[in-house]
Amino acid sequence: MKVNKYVWIYKEIAEQIDQRILNEGDIISSENDLTVQYETSRETVRKALNMLAQNGYIQKIKGKGSVVLNREKMRFPVSGLVSFKELFEMIGKETSTTVHEFGLVSPSDFIQKQLRITEDEDVWRVVRSRKIDGEHVILDKDYFIHGHVSRLTKEICEDSIYQYIEGELGLGISYAHKEIVVEPCTEMDQKYLDLNGYEHIVVVKNFVFLDDTSLFQYTESRHRLDKFRFVDFARRVK
């Protein structure tokens, strides 16, 4: 699987920080130097540095450069809005996706309420389990409003829905409201996940919006309790 150049640069520098080849307070190479080092464009380097800053690896300081921060290795960022494929490309874990249910359906009363639609508006319903290091530990239940996502296939769902929506449909995915709760495991969790005896599961509920502020997706991402540490890196905006 081909990885974007900026993701590859991000992973290499992040690994140097995680392995303490680069330590707190170190100044990493300038954008110009990294452009030469990686034989790429300045825009690609800037995207990699922005990703490092967003994930708490570095702090950009005007006139000084990018300074390495003191941090623990992050496992699963709460505030980020990235696809499963993008996230685990960055982390470098061995993963796979299995689509268990897929189709265009009439929304239930519950989904109508979450997506703020009527029963006349169809939705894509996608149920996928995520296998990480040999175990199925995430179950994603996605609902997309058909009026925004006109076409979807099982093959797209096995790869990256966000990549398809942004690249093929040309839609801009902008922001999300998130809610994290702990719930008892359901029959579906037991059917599709390797629960290893756990009776509760961490559920991240996402309400995702396009650039024009249209709500187009509701997701329940259900995680096995022992496999994830949900973390955030916060910056104060003045």
Automatic annotation (TrEMBL):
InterPro entries named among the record's database cross-references: Bact_HTH_transcr_reg, Chorismate_lyase_/UTRA_dom_sf, TreR, Tscrpt_reg_HTH_GntR, UTRA, WH-like_DNA-bd_sf, WH_DNA-bd_sf
Signal peptide boundaries: none
SMART domains per record: HTH_GNTR, UTRA
UniProt keyword terms in alphabetical order: DNA-binding, Transcription, Transcription regulation
Pfam families the record matches: GntR (PF00392), UTRA (PF07702)
UniProt xrefs under Gene3D superfamilies: Chorismate lyase-like, Winged helix-like DNA-binding domain superfamily/Winged helix DNA-binding domain
Keyword Transmembrane helix: no
Record carries keyword Methyltransferase: no
Sequence ranges assigned to domain HTH gntR-type in this UniProt record: 3-71
Protein name per Swiss-Prot or TrEMBL: Trehalose operon repressor
